[in-house]
Amino acid sequence: MTKSIVIRTFLLILAAAAVMLPERATASEGDRGESLFSELPVEMHGFYEMRGGYRTRKDKYEKDMSIMENRFQLDLYSYLDWGDIRFKGDAYGDLVTEKGYFDMREANVFLRPLDYMDLKAGRQILTWGTGDLIFINDLFPKDWQSFFIGRDTEYLKAPSDAAKVSLFGDWVNLDIAYTPRFDHDRFIRGQRISYWNSNLGRLAGQDAIVHTDKPNEWFRDSEIAGRLYKNIENYELAFYGYHGYWKSPGGQTATMTQAIFPDLNVYGTSLRGSVGKGIGNVEFGYYESADDQSGRNALVNNSEMRYLIGYAQEIGKDLTMGVQYYLEQMLDYGRYKNRLAPGFAARDEYRHLITLRLTKLLMNQNLRCSLFTYYSPSDEDAYMRPNLNYKVSDNLAVETGANVFFGDHSHTFFGQFQNNSNIYAGMRYSF
Amino acid sequence: MKSVWKAVLFLGLASVVAAAEKPDVETIVNKANIVAYYQGKDGKATVKMEITNKQGQKRTREFNILRKDVKDGGDQKYFVYFQRPADVRKMVYLVDKHTDKDRDDDRWLYMPGLDLVKRIAASDKRTSFVGSDFLYEDISGRSLDDDTHELIETTDKLFVVKNVPKLPDTVEFGYYNVSIDRKTYVPMKMEFYDKNDKLYRTIESTKVEEIQGFPTVVKSVVTNLQTGSKTEMEFGKVQYDINLDESIFTERYLRRPPREAIR
């Protein structure tokens, strides 16, 4: 029932787009590109995208097709005297799951009630912190599945249903994001990406979809995140706090049938600014696993310390390089090891991770070649994200890329995904 | 005696007039720099760029630009809000330009889809600005201290100044000549020569208007003779002295641009 409604909505939007697109295209030749909405104070934009990809090796738990979708995004924006209204939604037909979806990315109002205060309420994308594809103090929801199957990087950020209040002072600024009902990550649960299932002691996928028992009550199961920040001579200093839950499952029920999101508090800090010819950043976070502060409960994640140091610099003409070193330290490691059931593959106390980003722009910056690599010497695994994106015209872009996982062990962070390596190609028409 | 005084007065006046007509080269380049990049204490404009490559394919860029001078002839802040093409719409580029030697500009880019405030690590100012034939330095201004200046020609209308880089290894050109209007001090033409003395790139001011009393280049074109590519840039809705608040050039407005930038 819901499925057919979704598909019908999708078709309706597509039909509407088909009517509007030519209108827009001819109008844009004119002086200011007025759309059908020119009578209303609404800006209308969006894109149509086709994207397809396949696994590079057989995975007995998943389909060979890793991504195959037609996506239409509509972005409506209106700025009125009293505030802004934003609506951005994606309708897409997915051939891998053989379903149609509507993903509301943003639906919010922005107000500036006081000179020193901004407020954005509703569905929104939230980001802060200094890492490049590594997140310590950014505890807003991520969509790891989209990231791994080769959707645009933009989809790594999943929306939050939240209210963000920002206060600006002469000395310091403060952001508070309140999420009345916990928004978890769109984590790997086996539907499209096979993963290491520690209970089964093997890789699993569609045969063992992760079921969760999630904090789901409005206002009681809420999250609150804060950032206190200041720019000192263009060195950006920030302190962070978070009170909520592990964003991806951080434990399981006693019967070991459901994954859970235990309580989590995070306290951290970061600094970013120019260093030599480039930009340097450091970030730190203490993850307090509030349901298992002593590390005695084998069913709940231990507390952790997370550290990051990074540096990015232009090393040639339109060529930039970024390196990061990230360390995850599990606290109370001895207790974790003692409590670990026999036969379970143990994590290391320290997980070291190095990332390298190379981006080169060619052909008047219309061709972007990039490679992002995660490599963990302690886990002995790696994840590479090569991508080529070419802008054929102002409206049309084509791209191809891959998600390649390597690993010596099936239970490590990236090693578990090694059967999910995939290549993809896509085409996007923006308007 | 009287006539002596007259003579002295006359000579004095004559030298003042001569100085006005034949200022030294430092005065010329300083004035031209102010006219080109520092008119008013702040300003805004809507910019349209049309990039045409050798094959005749066209691409457009459209953005609104807000500028505030920290010091006349010195540091400046720029806020650039992109409107076209669609894939970069709503991106914001913030520049804290520093003219001190050995201090790179601070640059940020806001990517709205990710709500990400990114610090840009680029330090080479001689790379293309948004894929056009204009270089970053053409837009933000090249520091006068980076070159030595020599007045090589004075015509009825123009001063022609030759500029030779002090650190030739850091730039792709050998030298460049700037033809500056004697009346308005608007740089009318820049000609870049490569290290073999061959002209390979020109920037021309094709339309100059007086706006709020400030002579303003409203149309310019850069031609790359090597690649056969050219970019036309047009400024519209130019306004000066609009009292932009300092706070506009901070993360608050980067994440949510001010009305001045959107319209």
Describe the 3D structure.
The complex is a heterodimer of chains A (431) and B (263). Chain A has a single domain, classed as Beta Barrel (Porin), CATH 2.40.160.10. Helix content of chain A is 9%, strand content 50%. Chain A has helices at residues 2-27, 144-149, 333-339, and strands at 43-55, 65-79, 84-94, 99-114, 117-124, 160-168, 173-179, 195-197, 202-204, 212-213, 223-232, 235-245, 251-252, 259-260, 263-275, 278-289, 304-316, 319-330, 350-362, 367-376, 381-391, 396-407, 422-430. In chain A, the strands form 3 sheets. Chain A has an 18-stranded antiparallel β-barrel. In chain A, strands 10-14-13 form a 3-stranded mixed beta sheet, with no helix packed on it. The radius of gyration of chain A is 23 Å and the shape is globular. Chain B is of the alpha+beta class and 263 residues long. Chain B has one domain (23-262): outer membrane lipoprotein receptor (LolB), chain A. In chain B, strands 6-5-4-3-2-1-13-12-11-10-9-8-7 form a 13-stranded antiparallel beta sheet. Chain B starts with a helix and ends with a helix. At the A-B interface, strand 5, strand 15, strand 16 and strand 17 of A face strand 6 of B.
Short recap of the structure:
The complex is a heterodimer of chains A (431) and B (263). Chain A has 3 helices and 23 strands.
The coarse overall form of chain B would be globular
Q: Assign the CATH class of chain B.
A: Mainly Beta
In order across it, which strands form the biggest sheet of chain B? 6-5-4-3-2-1-13-12-11-10-9-8-7
Share of residues in helices of chain B? 10-25%
Write the CATH homologous superfamily of chain B: Lipoprotein localisation LolA/LolB/LppX
Count the DSSP helices of chain A: 3
Overall SS class of chain A: mainly beta
